[in-house]
Design a protein that fits this description.
Layout lengths: L2 H8 L2 H11 L3 E2 H5 L6 H13 L3 E6 L2 E6 L1 H15 L3 H27 L1
Antiparallel strand pairs: 1-3, 2-3
Length: about 120
């Protein structure tokens, strides 16, 4: 799932409204459809785009299909995008990676000393 798919999904007003409704809790396709003036195939298309972007998940229960939002996916994607366009993101990312390498090296050295 790419960041482009998430932004493509968010580019549509009806899809943003669907996400807003699902933010309140899970809903069936019928419950979502009652809130819009478009056809069932159009609703299905919007739900598919949101699902392919990883923003919602579906679960079949009996004869109904329930949809719910994946809030972490949206938050993580927006954070990743903001980090890419932020002018200080590159240096901060390199600093974080350097610290992580340093911590791993320290842990490896400590483990080697413990083995002696």
């Amino acid at each position: 799932m790419s960041i482009d798919r998430v932004f493509e999904a968010l580019a549509s007003t009806p899809r943003r409204k669907i996400l807003a409704y699902l933010n309140e809790g899970e809903m069936t396709a019928g419950e979502i459809g009652e809130r819009f003036d478009f056809s069932k195939p159009a609703l299905s298309g919007h739900l598919r785009v949101l699902e392919e972007a990883g923003l919602i998940v579906r679960e079949r229960r009996g004869q109904f299909v329930y949809f719910r939002q994946q809030p972490d996916r949206l938050a993580n994607t927006l954070f990743a995008w903001a980090s890419e366009v932020c002018p200080v993101a590159g240096p901060l990312k390199r600093e974080s990676q350097g610290r992580a390498r340093s911590l791993r090296a320290s842990a490896a050295e400590a483990g080697a000393r413990d083995d002696d």
